Model the fold of this input.
Amino acid sequence: MYRLTTRTRAGTATAIAVLVLVIAGMALPAFASRGVIQDLFFILTMLTLAQIWNLLAGYGGLVSVGQQAFVGIGAYAMFAGVILLGWNPVWAIPLGGLAALLLAIPTAYFAFRLQGAYFAIGTWVIAEVTRLLVAQWKTLGGGTGTSLPREATSNILGTDLIRALFSVREAAARDILAYWLALVLVVAVTGGIYWLLRSRLGLALSAVRDNVEAARSVGVDAGRIKWAVFLIAAAATGLTGALIFMQTARISPDAAFAVTDWTAYVIFIVVIGGIGTIEGPILGVLVFFVLRSALADYGSWYLMTLGLIAIAVMLFAPKGLWGLISARSGLHLFPVRRKLVGLKIEGGI
Amino acid sequence: MIWLDTLVQGILLGGLYALFAAGLSLVFGIMRLVNLAHGDLIVFAAYLVLMGVTLLGLSPWIAALVAMPLMFGLGWLLQTVVLNRVLGKDILPPLLVTFGLSVALQNGLLEAFSADSRRIPAGSLEGASLDLGLVTVGVMPLLTFASAIVVIVALNGLFYHTALGRAFRATSDDAVTAGLMGIEPKRIFAMATGIAMVVVTIAALYLGMRSNFDPSIGPARLIYAFEAVIIGGLGSLWGTLAGGVIIGVAQTFGAAVNPEWQILAGHIAFLVVMLLKPRGLFPRAVD
Amino acid sequence: MLLQTHGLTANYGQFRALFGVDIAVAAGECVAIIGANGAGKSTLMRAITGVIRNEPAMVLHRGEPIGALSSAEVMKRGIAMVPEGRRLFPSLSVEENLLIGGQVRKAPGPWNLEAIYELFPILRERRRNPGTALSGGQQQMVAIGRALMSNPELLLCDEISLGLAPVVIRDIYAALPKIRAGGAAIVVVEQDIGKALAVADRVYCMMEGRVTLTAKAADVSRQQIHTAYFGEAA
Done:
């Protein structure tokens, strides 16, 4: 019998390693300093955003330069939930995902009218419009922004337990909670994307990316798939944005809708690591963090270097660092390619 | 009368946006490449002109004339060394490369010139105005608009009445067959980007003389340029001027109602046109 | 030899389309390359003109290796092509389509705008029209005229009769002797054996990426061609 499978030995090893890593990660706050936890929070949230953008651009062919719209609207919705509705910040995070999902509907409606490269700038315009509109929202601080009220930050769900568990101060407890949530989110998002790519939708997605006409001719509805991917990505980005700004507890339109932080960095992570693979963003975020730490004292030289590295990677290794590694070793930690297993096929193809 | 005044200011502002957009439109028309660093290249050219004025003591006009061949060379090199290598069926590599260039340029400028606002001194032209009876218009905005028209006439002339323009159109239609005519598409692309950078220098001159600039303002200029191109319809330079005028008028009217709404009004005008006419007002090109 | 291929191979990805093709064209000669659909004739043309690049020594022009040159460089050496499907530039008028053919390489010779209009008078009437607004036959005339504008030493004509009515084909083939009289060698790639043999001095027949017959057009028998064309005895 023939059977289609995506299973490889490396894939199974990865599954075990991921499980061990997640358990270790959960236990880490017991040993690690607050600084380490904050760094890890940064890495995990950037990785989440990178995986999502990779889904859009690397797998869906949707090169969005406007993801900051969803980070920002998610963060602002979370703040609105806390400040205007009096919700606990943790419960307000899903509100961020919902707001981003709602924003994604008109965004997709406009941006999908634009083809290829113009889609990219179209998403950017919409992010700008959203930023300018949010800056008009005076109850949330207008153009200067606002902070989460003291009584909300001191009562975040679960922080009492964390304080008791690790005997840390309130601010550190908030960091640990945010870190745990980020860990859950990154596993959920990466796992979700992995599952998506292995599902029928994933097959359809790669068919659409490779050739829209051909995909349509075998009954794949390209339009609907693009909509689905775009909305899913927006909602997940909104959740991430809400979580990021729950941790900082301070928001402004310029910070929440920053194209550099939420799109440029993310694109560089994906490009350097390797676009169109799940391993790429993971490798990319590590490289990004190391570079950031090493060049932290050099201000704008750092960003300039990052831009130039991205150009060099696109020129000389368009599949990124992971592409180089997997080409040499044939390694696929997250196998999504289907293989025919069973009897040998006689005569070749 | 205040509304007429606002309208005229808006139309003239549209000339500046058309200048931003003309180079973008040219490059897209010939090689289907969207240069995300276009706005940053305008800012870069503005610093180049500024250096000519402050370091060499040239007048802004002469400084721009000196900057033009330099920018042409830069565009030619950029296309030859970088962009030609990533052009292809997949739009992702050129987009990501120009995005990387945008970030690198912005931060390079920041390091070289700091975040301080600068301005190209325009001497007596600054603040000079003409009384046209019904309205009074600034000489500088008027010059900008006139330059936009000259640039568009010149580009159209180049495109439709010269051998180079013929090669541009042929390469844009079918690069493989153009090769059979002895035309090297990559060389044509390099010429096109070089010419776009000359237009960018003209845009930069007016950008720098009319208002303050700093290294961070490039992306916003890219967006205005992009909106003007899309509103006008891809491939039509006169359409691009019309698009620039629409953005300009929307912005001045927005600002007249509430200064905070200036930029927003321009973007909203763009979105409205997109809703009503998805292919722009004067579509020419198929894609 | 004006043009020679030497063990020319060509691949489309994994798929090999040419297996060591040797042909030769002398100055002023007219050579026909015939073969069924998919025999590799058009691929051969694409490989000669640099649309597909090869090892340098696989294609020789006057003894110099040109196999790795770009199509623009090949064209500048005086090898012009009338591509399959005509491929006129839609943004250019008829006259501009002609002009662009002689824009980069303009060797001295009999061909210029006036001479092309004399060869195909209908084009003079249509010179302001967009190239793609013409009938198929007229478009083919533009494509031939465009290639002639550079006064090439060698004119490659890829399937110039494809999709055209017999009376139109006759007009177009009537132009070939005049082109030869102007001094250019001609290679016609054809599926129509009769047409090809009528104009050619020599004929190559191709099948499945290989040359299966090389002969003088005057001497070749129906039987030989049939075997070379279809790969079996009739």
Q: What stands out?
A: The mean pLDDT of chain B is 92. Chain B has eleven helices and two strands.
